[in-house]
Amino acid sequence: MPSADTSPVDARLHDLDERLATRLAEITRDELAERRRQLAVISPETAELADGLLDYLEGGKLLRPRFCFWGGVAALGPTEPTESQLRALARYGVAIELVQAAALMHDDVIDHSPMRRGRPALHVQASRCHRDGGLTGSADGFGTAVAIVLGDLALSWAEQIAATVEGEPRAVAAARCEFDALRTEVMAGQFLDILHQAGGYTSAADAEQAAFSVIRWKTVPYTVLRPVRIGAALMGGSEQALETLSEWSIEVGTAFQLRDDLLSVIGDQHETGKPIGGDILEGKRTVLLARTEAAASAEGRALLEAVVGRSGSSVQEIAAVHELMVSTGAVESVVQDVRQRAQHGRSLLADAAMLGPTGRAGLAALAALATEVEALTA
């Protein structure tokens, strides 16, 4: 979010964002402390699951709770949220963040990803604890099982927290419909991602359209679209406001994922916390890969066939694929796509007179962070 020393508007955004972050931390701490007490009745070991989730959430950017909050502020028009409204938005933000945590835990298992946020993925950490503790059986199997269980717990607790959000009954009901849609869509998108990676997503026109469809249903709904609509619905936003925010969210959410795909090729591992070349080793069927395949020569396609999705690929082979992505123009085309979608999003917000200026400024600041590619191409 903007720093507090640039303008009165930026200072106000910074103040609201700080208040949100404080409420998110308080609610997360209190909710997980209560869950820990419940689990401690069962055994000391199960109580540690709540500790593990709290540790896992540490260091997150809180992007989705922030989209929820600023969507709500935008729907309020010229007024700013009361303390009770801020707390309601923050509770939904915590619920969304727990869905995000569950999705990441399970996604890392599915993709065999070793790292998350610059540290070992949860299933890897659990495997190490198994080995260090001298437990019996498969350490890797134990790690996978723990990640699945803790992810399921996070989903369950997300549901419980969302169910206790208070507000005007019709607005609460409308926000709940959005939250239900978020969970259905992200799981459907996850399935499409798995299916596409296995070559089974045959109803899509081609590989690029299949990759865009995965983005539309896996990333967009739970990263931007539904969080924004949850916040706006909870604050009583009009149908016109919700539709405008939807159009904006699809542009920003798609640009966000396209940018994320670029990070594996031209990003800084120390900044992203993701291993460079991870998408190549996992065989992720991204838009970037689809465009590389379409533009590559026979020799280039042979390289992709030999390296992509092969866990034993060398650093040199991964570097060769990255070079191919650049030399075919695929990287530049995705960069341009991100820029165009981000610009369209800015135009949509600028024309959205039904949305409040403070909320629009907050959403614009978030979108700028989520879609920035200039540092990647400098």
UniProtKB/TrEMBL annotation:
Q: CDD domains in the record, alphabetically?
A: Trans_IPPS_HT
Which keywords, in A-to-Z order, does the entry hold? Magnesium, Metal-binding, Transferase
* Entries under Pfam families matching the protein: polyprenyl_synt
Q: Which Gene3D superfamilies match?
A: Farnesyl Diphosphate Synthase
Q: Which domain of life is it from?
A: Bacteria
What GO molecular-function term can you cite, just one? metal ion binding
**Single Gene Ontology BP term?**
isoprenoid biosynthetic process
InterPro entries in the record: Isoprenoid_synthase_dom_sf, Polyprenyl_synt, Polyprenyl_synt_CS
Has the keyword Oxidoreductase been applied to this entry? no
Which cofactors are named for this entry? Answer: Mg(2+)
Q: Which family does it belong to?
A: Belongs to the FPP/GGPP synthase family.
Q: Which PANTHER family does this UniProt record tie to the protein?
A: GERANYLGERANYL PYROPHOSPHATE SYNTHASE, SHORT CHAIN ISOPRENYL DIPHOSPHATE SYNTHASE
Protein's name according to its UniProt entry = Geranylgeranyl pyrophosphate synthase
**UniProt source species:** Brachybacterium avium
